[in-house]
Amino acid sequence: MEFGVQIEPQFGFEYEDISKIGKNALENGFNTLWFSDHFMLDADATDKVLLDPWLVMTAIVREFKELKVGSLVFCNSYRNPALHAKMAATLDVLSGGRLEFGIGAGWKRLDYKAYGYDFPDFPTRAEQLIEAIQIIRGAWTENKYSFSGKHYTVENLVSFPKPIQKPHPKIWVGSNMGGPRMIELAARYGDGINVAWGFTPTQTQDIFNQLHDFAEKHGRKPESIGKSVGCWSRILKSDSEMEEKIKSGAKSRGVSEDAYRKRVKTSLWGTPEIVAERLSQYREQGVSHIILMFPYGEKREQIALFGEKVLPLL
Question: How many domains does the chain have?
Answer without folding.
Answer: 1
